Structure formats: structure tokens, C-alpha cells
Amino acid sequence: MTVKIKGIIEGTQPKDLLKSLISLASDWGDVVDTSKLKAVHLSGAMTNVVYRITWPTENDERTVLVRIYGEGSDIFFDREEEIRTFEAISTHGHGPHLLARFPEGRVEEFIHAKTLSAFDLRDPEISTLIAAKMREFHGLNMPGSKTAVLWTRMRKWLIKAKSLCSQEHAKEFHLDILENEIVELENKLSKRHQHIAFCHNDLQYGNIMINDKTKTITLIDYEYASYNPVAYDLANHFCEWAANYHSDTPHIISLNVLFIGFIGNQPHDTEVDQLIDDVEKYTLVNHIFWGLWGIVSGNVTQIDFDYIGYAKQRFSEYWLKKPQVLKE
Q1: Inter-CA distances, 167 with 175, 177, 232, 277, Å
Q2: Where are the domains of the chain?
Q3: Would you identify the family this protein belongs to, as annotated (predicted)?
């Protein structure tokens, strides 16, 4: 449904957003009647609230994407660092351009491509295109530290989760022993060489777009992007094969979906076998990572999503699969 923009974006000051949009329009030579600005809410985002904004021009119409930062989302990442990452990725020819910023969010170039569906991730042709794009993404030389942030970030989120959740949830999620679990995983996964590269870290289907004509893949939304083990990024992506955030139960991921085994159909060698093993182990890390994200989000955001239910499932899967995956 398309509606007028004024008053629809809860938690923001419309004048700040409108000022940014009018300034952009002026830069492009557009004459804007604010009563004709239209907004469409784009579903699927779980950290921010995202809108497609359009306004008529002399010959056609102009479209941009507006991202409203979710309440409490600054807990998860540094917004200034995210903006620097966003701009650096853009200079490498990836993703949309940053058009404007305002206190509660930003305006981005609108990518005229189709956002993937949950089903698309498991399409062999599309999956091959995604793999090629991930390899390209992992080859980016980004400014700043090249050290993996995964373990530090998890510990930071664990501290925050402990400070926010109830005693009941702290006990249910075993928060008192999670530091030991993180240490164990870090030690086991650090025993052998890990390929560290610039990773997206959140490659769910809603963050991947495809141009159906050119078969070009675009990765978007870099809030969690950082240097990390490539195997972690692959594990995260494969875990997302099991998710459908547009279903009647978006917080439930179908973990019976086989998302690792298909790699085993390829010719084996030592390097491939090690990567498969690393990816399987990093699925455990992913369960803790996004389980903590769910606990924190469930206590700070008003977005309509069952974050706590999501966290319960991720931690349940962690404890279920740990004995099998970490067996020596």
C-alpha cells in the first residue's frame, strides 16, 4: 500500500527526513510538492525500518530508499563506522550510494532489482551467482583493522544480554556459562589457519538482490559487515537457507533443511574438507551470535518480530548440535 509520507514514520521527526529529501530533490533539479511524496514500507528488515520513497518529476518519478534506524540498534554496531564502511564499499562499485543522512536514519540510492525470496536462496543457478559475488566481496580491501571482530562482538553482546534480560531468561539461555562456550569455540577454531577477509555477516535473502535481465547479484545492508573468518560468513549464509521471514511464523527457521551437505557432492580434497568442517563448526558460532542478538533485540526494539522466540530456537539448536559437530 502506498501512503503519504507525513506522519507514517513512527519515532522520527518528519521535518528532518523531509528536509533531506527536499535538499536531494533540489540537487537533482526536481520541484517537490511534499503532499505528493509517497512511501511504501518494505517488509523483512529486522534491525531497521525501511521505506521506498517516490515523488513525481516533470517526465517520470524519482525513487530513493529511506532507512530508519531501529530503536536500540546502536548497541550492535557503531553507526559512524557503518557509514564509513558503506561509503568504502560504494567506491569499490558494490551496492547503493549514500545520498543523505539525518539524525534517525539515512537516504540511499534505490536499487532497481528484485530482492530474493527464501526459496531463491536454494535455487542452484542463483546460489552459484551468490557464491561468485561472495568471493568478490571477500576480496575487498577495506580500510581499518583487518582483525576478525567476531569473538569480541559476541562477548560485548553477551554482557549486554545479561544486563537486559530477566533472571528467568538468563537461566533459560544459560547466560552464566556462555562465556565458557565462546572460549571453547574460539580455541577449537583457532587451532588451524583461518582465512580472514571482509565479510558481510548477514547474508539473509532480504540482503541479496538480483537483476533478472543481467543476472547481476547485489549485496546490500552492511551494518554487521567486518573482517571475519570466511567460513563464518559461509556458515551464516547457509543457516539463512532455513529461514523465511515472510511466513506466518517468521521467527521460526526450518533447521531440518540440509544446508551443508550439498557441498559434499563436490570433488573432495584436503582444503575443501577442511572448509566444510570449519563451516559446520561456525554454524554453532552463528547460533550463539544470533541468539544473543535476539535476546538484546527483544529487550530494546519495537519492531514486530518474536526476537525472544527466535533466540530460543537458535540456542536450542546450539545445544542440540554441539556434541555432534565438536566430536573429535
Answers
A1: 10, 14, 31, 36
A2: 3-109, 114-325
A3: Belongs to the choline/ethanolamine kinase family.
CATH T-level topology, domain 114-325: Aminoglycoside 3'-phosphotransferase; Chain: A, domain 2 (3.90.1200)
Polymer length in residues for the chain: 328
Q: Do domains 3-109 and 114-325 have the same CATH topology?
A: no
3-class SS string, the chain = CCEECCCCCCCCCHHHHHHHHHHHHHHCCCCCCHHHCEEEEECCCCCEEEEEEEEECCCCEEEEEEEEECCCHHHCCCHHHHHHHHHHHHHCCCCCCEEEEECCEEEEECCCCEECCCCHHHCHHHHHHHHHHHHHHHCCCCCCCCCCCHHHHHHHHHHHHHHHCCHHHHHHCCCCCHHHHHHHHHHHHCCCCCCEEEECCCCCHHHEEEECCCCEEEECCCCCCEEEEHHHHHHHHHHHCCCCCCCCCCCCCCCCCCCCHHHHHCCCCHHHHHHHHHHHHHHHHHHHHHHHHHHHHHHHCCCCCCHHHHHHHHHHHHHHHHHHHCCC
pLDDT (tens, 9 = 90+) of the chain, 328 residues, equals 444 555 555 555 566 888 888 889 889 988 878 888 888 888 766 678 889 999 998 888 999 999 888 776 777 878 888 888 888 998 888 889 999 988 888 899 999 899 999 899 889 999 999 999 999 999 999 988 899 999 999 999 999 999 999 999 999 999 999 999 999 999 999 877 889 999 999 999 999 999 999 999 999 989 899 999 999 999 999 999 888 777 777 777 766 654 444 444 455 577 778 888 899 999 999 999 999 999 999 998 888 889 999 999 999 999 999 998 987 5
Residue with cell 554482557: 159
